[in-house]
Amino acid sequence: MRQIVNILIISILVLEGCFAPGNIVETLPVLAGDTLSLNGYVYSLPQTSFKLNMEVVRTRIIHGPYYRFSEKLLSIKDVPVRSSTTYRISKVQLESFEEADPDNVFLLRQVSGQTDLSPLLKLGREGLIYDYSQALYTGKQAYLPDASHEGPMFTELSMERNTVMSIDTFYKTILTDTSFIRVPVLKEQLMVKTIDEKAEEAADFILELRYERFMMLTGNNNTQVSDYSVQRLDEIEREYLELFIGKSFEEKLQYTYYITPSGDGFFENIEILEFSENRGILEEGSDDSEVLSLRIRKTGKTDLLRDPIQPEKLSVQTNALYYRVPDVAEIEISLGGRTLLSDRYPVCQYGVILSMPIDP
User: Fold this and answer.
1) Contacts of 91 (CB under 8 A, 6+ apart)
2) CA 224, CA 216: separation in Å to the nearest integer?
3) DSSP string spanning 130-196?
4) Burial of 123: CB neighbours in 10 Å, binned 0-12, 13-18, 19+
5) Distance (Å, rounded) from C-alpha 172 to C-alpha 216?
6) What is the model's pLDDT at position 194?
């Protein structure tokens, strides 16, 4: 509060230097539909908006083609038996910024004399008014495009051929002068291996890799071992293990939302979006979704400055300036009742609108 008083004192001194005897200016509220000539200094009271940056991690699990044999051949249990996609919120960041309040625009015009109004820009730097020469935030919801994986997920299915030569014996009947004779005939044909055979080959290869790595690390095969060799064996084993335990992919999606509190009352609950662990960000609610909301509670730090008899509609001020003193609000972002972020921010529209008299 002492800092606010110091700012007010400095601002009054700045404005007093703008005026000379006989100089009169008026501050007029500019409302929608007014036909005023905007010949003068137009400014607005500031309002606080929030920029919510949210990171959502999408995890895709794809079951391996040999998942049914993981326990039988490798003693690995609880592997994924179906592909799935899940979402989780990994990061929430809230930033506040000031922009012009369209409901509180004012025209500061010269009635008599001549006044240099350029020192008023100092009030804008102090956050008491909003100067339209400042940069505005212009943003909307944005997110990264869906980056889906294309092509086959598993290519290292086996180090062996996918076919095997099958030799079958057939009998050919030959008619002689006195009888029929059955003659055996061998027939060769290529047969595609069954998934059971391919899974067993992949499991045998994994066990062989583990054995060779053990022999290398214990020095039993009289071969010089390098870190790269062991690393490559680990990578090859991991690729073959994925045939049984499946693959997992993580993708990070970035979302941005802009929120402006209304400033009415002591408490606001703003529902931002619906979130589902199975489908991510939703435009409409569903049975498995939860609401991400922004809760704002005014602390009332500036209530002692409020004029109990001040009219709802601001009047024209002579040699005076309207400004706004921000209040402090407690901000909480929650998902389904669970708090994700909690902090305190100054919020202009929760504050008090005052007028600063000027002695010409």
Assistant:
1) 53, 54, 55
2) 8
3) EETTSPPP----B--------S-S-----SS-SEEEEEEEEEEEEE-SS-EEEEEEEEEEEEEPPHH
4) buried
5) 55
6) 83
What does residue 235 show for φ and ψ, rounded to 5 degrees? -65, -45
- The CA distance from 14 to 125, in Å, is 13
Percent of the chain beyond pLDDT 70?
70
pLDDT digits (tens, 9 = 90+) for 155-193: 655 666 655 556 666 667 776 667 777 767 666 666 677
Mean pLDDT of 109-122: 69
Which pair of tokens denotes residue 45? 């009271």
Which one is predicted more confidently, 22 or 196? Answer: 196
* Amino acid in the structure at residue 348: C
The gap from C-alpha 128 to its chain's centroid, in whole angstroms, comes to: 32
Instruction: Give the chain's end-to-end CA distance (angstroms, integer).
Output: 28
Cβ(107)–Cβ(36) below 8 Å: yes
Residue 31 makes CB contacts below 8 A (sequence gap 6+) with: none
What pTM was estimated for this model as a whole? 0.70
Q: How many CB atoms lie within 10 A of CB 41?
A: 20
